[in-house]
Amino acid sequence: MRPVKFKWKLFLCALLAPPLLTLISAAAMRYFSSPLGDPMTPVIGVVGGVVGGLICGVLGGLNVCENLAGRVFFSIILSAVMIPICITLCCFGCGIGGYNFEIH
């Protein structure tokens, strides 16, 4: 098996789309807030961060090895690294968008 050509545009979209969506959601809820608060922004951040991290990890893992076992192994390892990075970026997106973190 040959390494798959790395798709930079898809990688950058998967890395930056969840933080951008959380930023837009937090900014929108800041101006159009309801009395119940904003339950959607954290959900978008966590779910989007996990999905974005998985996509980034798989795209990176497909380019590291030539055999199938190595691709699967490195995809899992890179996904485990990229998921926390994407979730952290989503937290920054929430903060920049003006989301009010309240820990009770």
**Class per helix and strand makeup:** mainly alpha
User: What is the overall shape?
Assistant: elongated
Mean pLDDT: 88
How many β-strand stretches? Answer: 0
Tell me the distance between the termini. Answer: 52 Å
Low-confidence stretches: none
Helix % is over 70%
If you had to describe this structure to a student in words, what would you say it looks like?
The chain is mainly alpha-helical and 104 residues long. It has one domain (8-95). The chain is 73% helix and 0% strand. The chain has three helices and no strands. The mean pLDDT is 88.
Topology diagram in text:
Layout: H1 8-31, H2 40-61, H3 68-97
Helix pairs in contact: 1-2, 1-3, 2-3
